[in-house]
Amino acid sequence: MRDLIFSLLVLGMVPVVFRRPFMGLVMFSWLAYMRPQDLTWGFARFQRWSYLIAIVTFIGFIRSRPKRWFVPNWRSYAMIAMAIVVGISVAVSERPDKDQFTKYLEFVKIIVITLFTTAVVVRREQLRMLVWIIALSLGFYGIKSGVWGIMTGLGTPIIRGPGGMMEDNNALALALAMTVPLLVVLGLTERRTLVRRAFLFAVPLTCLTVFLTHSRGGFLSLGGALAVLAWRSRNRVAVFSAAAVIGLVAVVLAPADYKERISTITEYETEGSAAGRIYAWGIGFRMTAANPVLGVGLDKFRQHYVEFDPNPTAAKLGGHGVIEAHNSYVEIMAESGLVAFGLYMSLLFGCFSMLWVVRSKAKRHYHTSWILSYSDMFEASMVAFVIGGTFLNRAHFDLAYHLMAIILVFGKMAIREMEDPLAYPLRDGVRGELVPIQRRVFGRVAPGFGRGFGKGQQSAGLLAHG
Length: 466
Fold this sequence. Notes:
By secondary structure, the chain is mostly helical. The chain has helices at residues 2-19, 21-33, 49-63, 74-92, 98-120, 124-151, 169-188, 193-212, 216-232, 236-253, 256-263, 272-290, 301-304, 328-365, 370-388, 398-419; strands at residues 437-438, 440-441, 444-445, 458-459.
């Protein structure tokens, strides 16, 4: 019955996504991040529903004769160039195989979806809906596994992901750490009390699930994301103090085996797994030095590991056989070369630079706004990925590239709104309200909009709910 209901739901959406490509993107994101097909037990579990939705969506998109295929920005061109460079590295690699080609097609699919996102997300309501879908889809596993952990007295085995990009415990922990900022900010900026409480209820359960994965990289990613949110908050002292108290309680209540595992972060020079990772990074640097332009080929790190290992037995420090890069940056350098690595780093830097520019402009205009809230949210999520990528092979992580596209769309949208605030309609001023304030200089209203703090300042009367 569950398979039948799910299948009818997806098939029923086919005509909708054909007529409205944005709904196709929303549906595809739901299937990719929540993976509801994995919650079925029969025939629906093994169908490629996301491919069906993607094909129908693109046919409908082409039929609509779009004015643009993607946002013409250097970040978009960098993604295209990266896909080309990685493809060339696959073509010239030693003994290319079917698995390698399949992984490259998956990477191309990620880039296509990323560029498609910039083409169809053109309004703030669409941006908000897409972020909601991502947050709720991933938050579902945070809530589900967090409740299960509480019911079992935190004695559950290591929690792993449902499949796809979140198949193992480390990938699930990274995805959930990137999701926590979305849940926090969407909850705090939501005006409906019940919905706001639901989002904020999901936050501690999602954090608990990250802990239950026993992923040290996920633990550090979550810590980085929460630190950014605390630093960007209005009352840093209170937030950091509350975080310290919560952290102390968590340390007391955490199972002994979890505390023992996390404590090994500081013992990276002697702990087997951590020391093995550092050793693998050195192997990756040797691969890069020998193949600086195009690397050894996508997904070829494992195949060439022994070739660049001067002492094969040393790779098994503490009994851990290390045949992966265990670092997204080393992975892309070694497998695809310095050109791809440069493009990849430019995309990451481009995300942060756009968020910082947008926040700087917004602070000069507004006391509070959806723009400032979303800037904090996306920055915290990307910080979680950057930290997690230092310990995991996630150079081609779906969620990270999708966030890059969303940040690009958000940045363009926010700057356009700040440059022409009168073009946006009046709405009730509530949480996350956008309030331009006019400053008074020597008793007269100064030209332009500024940031206001006191009740005595004159509001421009423009309110837009975020």
